Amino acid sequence: MSAHALFVTAAYAITVVVLAGLIGWILLDQRARKRELAALEATGVRRRSDKAVKS
Question: How far apart are CA 55 and CA 48, in angstroms?
Answer without folding.
Answer: 19
